[in-house]
Amino acid sequence: MKIFIDGQYYDEENAKISVFDHGLLYGDGIFEGIRAYNGRVFKLKEHIDRLFHSAKALLLTIPMSHAEIMKAVVDTCRENNLRDAYVRLIVTRGVGTLGLNPNRCKKPSVIVIAGTIQLYPQEMYDNGMEIVTVPTTRNLHNAVNPAIKSLNYLNNILAKIEANIAGVEEAIMLNSDGYVAECTGDNIFIVRGNELLTPPLSAGALYGITRAVVMEMAREGGMQVSEPNLTRYDLFIADECFLTGTGAELIPVRKIDGRVIGSGKPGPKTGSLVEKYRALTQTSGDAIF
Ligand code: PXG
What single-letter DSSP state applies at residue 202? Predict the structure, then answer.
């Protein structure tokens, strides 16, 4: 595997960053998870736009342009001869001193790793997954804003640990007002009749790129799409529920906090959105080869 670090490619065993990098010392940095399908990088521009927005919020100056970063992602896939890939793009604050002042870090580092990912077992895509609400609440907007895709994922990791303790793979995180925000690495949707509902971004969700694609596909398919505040009760009484994310794609949910959702099997609206999403990923994106 060839890994891109600051303009050069390194073999896996030589792909190293300093122990003084503030990405490691303080989680001071940002990332994106991007997929390539069938020789094309899916929604690359959207991911790079979000990366630059995260950087702006953290006053982190990325030492490359939009176009250069897009090229680095595509080139790293090509360098590894990958037609289907999961790309982890990371920008760290760079090497600094012990002490958290980011002004001591002279140059942020850009890292691109192109590998593969399978977040959940196939059985869950076929039959739906079981998830639970966990005690750890989503970050507040006036703390580390949950829209920033930062290297500081401990909020989500704690929630993931709580899900694992409960014997499931994913957790629903509520915000401090008790409304549903999202899951640890996925946005959440419910279907109610012909309506598709997902929490508003103001509830503490990440501006999910898969989320935006699914909302557009549903509108095109004649569904009514809205973003109201949702409670756990709204989830329990939904006809269908599914999660979205670059890694997970669309995955049906069959049980939440012990309550069976709808028929307990992946529903027809979810099924049709899954098909449409798969078709889109196979045919659109920036070409690698
Ligand atoms: N919420 C959070 C907190 C995320 O981290 C999403 C929603 C979905 O957003 P996108 O833009 O991907 O539709 C994410 C993305 C992993 C992994 O390794 C996590 C994500 C993406 C890819 C892999 O668990 N999270």
Answer: G
